[in-house]
Each structure stands twice: as structure tokens, then as C-alpha cells.
Amino acid sequence: MAESAEINALVEREYAAGFVTDIAAETLPPGLDEGVVRAISAKKGEPEWMTEWRLDAYRRWRKMRPPRWAHVRFPDIDYQAISYYSAPTGDKPKSLDEVDPELLRTYEKLGIPLHERAKLAGVEGADESAPVAVDAVFDSVSIATTFKEELRDAGVVFCSIAEAIREHPELVRRYLGSVVPKPDNFYAALNSAVFSDGSFVYIPKHTRCPMELSTYFRINAANTGQFERTLIIADAGSYVSYLEGCTAPMRDDNQLHAAVVELVALEDAQIKYSTVQNWYPGDEQGRGGIYNFVTKRGACLGARSKISWTQVETGSAITWKYPSVVLRGDESVGEFHSVALTRNRQQADTGTKMIHIGRGTKSTIVSKGISAGRSQNSYRGLVRMNHGAAGARNHTQCDSLLIGDHCGAHTFPYIESKLPSATIEHEATTSKVSDEQLFLCQQRGIDAEKAVAMIVNGFCKDVFRTLPMEFAVEAAQLLEVSLEGAVG
Amino acid sequence: MAGSPAEVTLTQRLLKGGHSGYAPWLDRRPSRDVIERIGLPALRSEEWRHTNVRRWYEAVLANGSSRAEEAAAIAAPAAIEVVDFASPRAAELAAAGPASVIDLASQPLAAVNALLLRAGAVVRAPSGIRSTEPVRIGALNGAFQHVLVHVEAGASLTLIEEPSAFTHRVIEATVAEAGHFCHWRRQARSAERECSLVAVRLQAGANYALAQTSRGADLRRNDIRITLAGSGAEATVVGAWRLHGHDHLDNQVAISHAEAGGFSRQTYRGIAADSARAVLYGRIHIAAGANQTDAALSTKNLLASDAAQVFAKPELEIHASDVQCRHGATVGTLDDAAMHYMRSRGIGEEAARELLLAGFLREAIADAEGAELVGLGA
User: Fold this and answer.
1) Contacts of B325 in chain A (CB under 8 A)
2) What is the ipTM of this complex?
């Protein structure tokens, strides 16, 4: 492109969340065997059934092999070289003065608002007027969960998964692994064996969760993996909007993040799950960065239930992630809105699966991929209409934008229909940022960087529109920052 | 040796035995190497996800080389040279022509073809010859067939493949600079298990147009690989199919843009009724540096019964930035409003359905002459 030199110069901004917090932590030595699985379970004070559940997952995982079909390349991971548990040490602090100042500075640098930050660092009795409740996961443990009392008044359970295993075993036993079974795939099995923390949400019948719920994941320790587990259950007629954010320090080694997220929507329930994924993507040469191998799946079990995934993916060295919806309830609805931006040597293989089982089910997929630098960005999706899905509909729109001559943009949609009354429509386009659009903007005095940001923003607006407002602003800014210097 | 009994038996037979003895000038070592090194496709491989390759192996073992001998049916205008693989002239033409365009590693069935080959022909359109009269290829002697097509610079060739039975057929073509190759394929309904490979390489400014209509077979698999190896090359593929009963049709098309300024269009329309199963994988690959490429694929499918199935996978793999690429895929059934419109004008239900279905297939092959040629009616 004509302005490539100018545009190229724009992208070299550093990863802002790439610092390391020097904090005392208790970390298990690297390696994985049944003893490690038992040790994690013991540290969490888990009941026997949970330990057995983990061991079963571990034994299944040992027989599995990592998937190789994704359009990503990386050296084999040595699973015995990873530490599977790391947690900041010390008792829970009573006031800000007692909180490890390093932990405080971490949240300050990450830009979590002050009133939330007091809570995030584990302080009791801080100002709790913020509209978003946060569960902060630092390496392997949940540091704190805010607004628990307000939520409790509404009947909502929002806590770490470790706490849920202790306090709500009946719900956990019933639903954990019901959407993503232990042997679902290699990384899900590994997660089932070693997950250390994550968030648990239960919204009771006919309840609209009074505020947005949010989890903030932070990997800090070196040579560790993060394996969080999230389980959200929306009972009949309820509604919840859930946000997820994540960052990690800049390191030359790759770190593994293998999470599992399970959503369950019962009759007439709605779950809106939004992610802004900003794990450290590695440097220009492709050194370091997070391997983000995540299994996210929702089950619309009840009639007229709805699950909506929105993701803005700008981070991670490698992303392998397919947030999916199993549309079991009649007239249930699944949505997937995604923006995936890759630059430098990032690789993303991401998309969704919509499995239509119930009658009159509907799904919408909007995927926007932006590739820059030497990155590889793939959309991989499956739309399947099973025999019972009479009158089901799907519409998929999948667009890729190319910035630069050395990147790749790929589309691998699987379309499977087994009944005539179901309708599937799939469209995909790939093009570059058009010279005409750039010229038009620049002619009107908008510089190349702003022009590209505007064009990319317009390209992604269908997805940003579906994000909660604060997140939409953050996502747009994140994209702008990520694009600096990537363009060309 | 791993694999199903049919696969193991076939592999052993191929590795132990020599080739059929036909066209001894053909270098079959690469084929044997591939079978030794890579083996035959396994049942659960991604490329054979929807077609049970073991059933084809059974067909090879059952009638691989013993199909009733038929007279070779090739008709060609005088300006086009056509010679049987058995003649020394075929060896000369093959040696003088461009290198093979088949990637055996990704097409191990072509290796099987080479070892069991019983019928083959070289078709040469000499430089500058623009023949309007087509070459017609009907039934060929033997279950394994290979047609090698050389369209020389500036030449023009029309090839019509008429319905005939085979177990495996390879059409391998090179089109030199500014050459034109127009290829019609008409696949009749068949109770056999048939696989075929069309591999075409286009040089700068060359043009290839393929129109294919298929009825189903007990098992039918068409692999089509087109490489736009020169700048400004053009490829157009249109396909229409109508399946009934237990028909199975698996079309695997890949168009690869290796150089800049290429243009490709793919248009498919398919109908699956009863318990039929239709598969279309359509891949567009654009190599780094193949800028100013314009590529598009459209596939639309109608399901005409509760037991019919459609699988579609339109793929884009793009490594260049200045390109225009798109694909679209739909699966559904006949539009009620269109049916109602026809019925309200006094057209009976069956006739209305037929008209709509025929019209739907004609979206793929628009010109009347072409539609007639590939059996879609005027």
C-alpha cells in the first residue's frame, strides 16, 4: 500500500501490562503427576469427590494427545516443565496498609479503578459503590471478589470456584463438566485435572443480576501455567452480563493458559459473556507470549434461552479458542461476535461452533479478523443442524482485513445440515484497507494512523456494538494501541 | 501394517506386485514411494471425512483390473493430436511436455492409478491452434485411466468428458501462456464407486473453464486441483448436482493462486433428495506475493428430504495483502413464496417444483448450450 512506510511506523507501542510484580508467592515445583493433582486439591481444601474428579481427568489426559489440526505452529510443550500452582503468600489483609504494596501497585498500573482496587487487593470494608463486581485471579488463586453482599441480597452467588466447591457443592457437582466434559479435548482434560481457581456464578430464577460481573485474570509468576475454570449458571428467567479481562508480564518464555468456561442457561434465561483478551502477545520476533488454549462452551438447555459470546482478542502469542453454543432448548438463541487482531508473529485460530438441536433455534455469527505484521489469523467455525432442529436458522458473516504483505488471513467454516427446513447462510470476505478510504481520510487532514484506526473501528463496529459500553470504549482503544506500528 | 483389511490388502498388493505393464515408459517409482512412505488415505483422515475410502478400496480389489474391455471412445478433430499411452509417440509427447502437475503426496489415489493403469491418452493442442470442434472422451479401456492434456501457447482446446464408468480417472492438464482449455464433464448416475482427479496448471494469461454436472453414484469423489502458476491466469469452475436415493457425491476443489493478477470464480448449485449426501469442500489458496488476485466462491444447496445431508466447507487461505476474496454458502429448501407464486398461476405442484429446481441448477450453468451439454436441459 502507498502509505505503508508511514503506517508501518505506527505500531511499535510496547505492551503496557507487561510488568512483573515482585511478590512473595508459594509455587509448586514444575511437573505433573497424581501427587501434584492431589496437592492442588488439598491446598484448596476440596472434598474427596472433587479430588477423585480431578484424578479421573488427569488419567484421561495422560492418554490424550494435543490437537494438531489448528492453523498454528509452535514447538511441543513440555508439560513436566510447568508449575501448576502459584499463589501470593500471607494472610488476608484487613486494611490497605496491610496489603502488599507490590500487589497494590499491580492493580494501579493495570488501571483498575481505585474503589475496586481496594477490594481487589483483598481489603475489607472499602468503598463498594462501583457498578461492576470483580473477581480477581492472580496466578492460581482468586484474590478477592467484590460486592458479594449486594449480590447476596439479590440472591446471586458470585465467588471463586474454590469457594463454590465448598459452599455450593450441589450446584458444582451437577453442572461442572456438564457442558465441557473432562475428556472433551486435550487442554480441557488438563484443566479439569489441575484448575486452581476461577469464578462461579449462579443467578436464581427470575432474577436480573443487579450489576455487571467481571473477572480479571493476571498471570505473574514465571514458568507457571494458569488454568482457571469458570462456571456460570443462569436459572429459569434470569439474566446476567459477565465480563472477562486478562494480562500477563512480558517474558521471553511462553506461558500456557488453558482455561475452561462453562455456561448453562435454563428456560428463558440469558447469559451475555464478554471478553477483552489482552494476554502478552510476545515481542516483534515472536519471543515469549501466552499460549491461550481455551475451551469455552455454553449450553442453552431451556426453551427460549440465549447465550451470547462477544470477544475482542488482541493478545496471546497463540490463540486456540472456539466459544460455542449447544442450542438444545427449543427456540433458543446463540450469538458469537468476535474481533481478533493479530500482529508481529501472533497466531490465532479462533471461531465458534453452533450446534442446533432444538426446534426453531437461531444463531448469528459475526467475526472480524484483522491481520498485520507477520501474523496468521484464522477463523474456524462449525454450524451444524441436527435432525430435530426444524425451522432452525443461522447467519454467519466473517470478514478479514489484511494490513501488510507478510500476514495471513484464513477462513475454515464447516457447514453441516441434516434437515431441509433449516436455513444456513454463510458469507466471508477478505480485503485490505483500501487505498481509496485512506486517501479520502488523509485528504481531509486525518493522519494515516488515525485513518487506519477509524477504518478498523468501522470494520469492527458490529461487534463493538454488542459489548457493554465501558468495554466497547476500552476495546476500541486497545485495538488502536495494538495497531500502532502494525499497519503496513 | 495399520488400516482396514481392504486397505492393508490393497497396500500389500501394490507394494508386492509391479504395475499393470501398460505404458511401460511411465516412471512409476514416485508412485510406489508414496505408497511406501505415506500409505493410503485412512478412514478417519480429514480429507476423507465424508467419504468412506475403504468402500473404494473394496471396489478396487473387487474389479480393479478386471472391468470388461470396451473400445476406447475418443473422438478428436484433425488439428488436435490424440495418442494412446501404449504408443511410443505418447512417451515422446510426455517427455517433451511440462513436468507432472500432480502432487502425489496429497493425492495418493493417483499413485494407485499409476500402478493399476490400463488406459491412457495424450491430448495435445499444438501452439497457436484454436480448435472450435471438441475432443470427446467417452468410455476408456480399463478401470484406471489417465488423460494427459497439453494445451500449448496460444492454443485453444475444448474437451468433453461424456458419461462413462471407471474406478479412478485422472485428467492432468497444463495450459501454456495465453492458452485456453474449456472442459465439460458430465457424470451420469452410477451404481459404481468412482474417484477422479482433475489437476490443472495454468501459465501466464492462460484460461481454464470447467463445467461439471453430477448425478450421484454409490460412491463418487471428485478431487479438482487448479494452480494459477502464471500471472494473470484465470480459472472458472461451475458445478451442479442432483442426487437421489442413497447417492453419495464428494467434491473437493482447491484453487491455488501462486502468482499475481489471477482471477478465479467457483459457482456450485446442488440438490440432495431422499437419503443422498452431498459434500463440497472449496478451497481458495493465495500465496504470498499473489497480489491483485480476485477470487470468489458461491455454493448454494437445497435439501429436498428429511434424510438428505449437505456438508460444505468453503475455505480461504490468504498470504497476500492486496487481494479481493469472498465466499458464500447457503443450505435450505425451496422458497414457499416462489412455490405459491407458481401454484397461483395454475402450475401443478410437481411441475412447479421441477421448474424451480431446474432453474436453481441453471444458476450455476447459465448458457443454454452449456446446460444442454452437461445434461441440465435447455
Assistant:
1) 429-431
2) 0.86
